[in-house]
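Try this one yourself first.
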């Protein structure tokens, strides 16, 4: 633990309160900051690991297999366009 504290930037509590926002940004970028009170290390400020959200393999799929087409679909969009036979232009 002493090795970690030697590598980390130490800052006093008053200064940490004044510059907390900047210190949090630095910690988020990977810097480790030790906060000391009266010269004694009291806390360590480190960034959290980036968590990648894993999407379900079913994301965006038609799970129930039901497709509904309104009876008046051709009023707005010609059927040929829907089937890919014609362009909209």
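Now uncover the answer:
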């Amino acid at each position: 633990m002493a090795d970690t504290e030697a590598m980390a930037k130490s800052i006093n509590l008053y200064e940490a309160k004044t510059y907390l926002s900047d210190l949090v940004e630095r910690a988020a970028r990977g810097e480790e900051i030790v906060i000391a009170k009266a010269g004694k290390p009291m806390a360590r400020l480190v960034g959290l690991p980036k968590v990648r959200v894993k999407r379900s393999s079913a994301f965006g799929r038609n799970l129930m297999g039901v497709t509904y087409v309104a009876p008046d679909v051709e009023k707005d969009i010609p059927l040929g366009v829907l089937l890919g036979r014609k362009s909209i232009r």
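Discussion: Residues 1-6 have pLDDT under 50 and may be disordered. Helices lie at 2-7, 13-18, 20-28, 73-76, 79-82.
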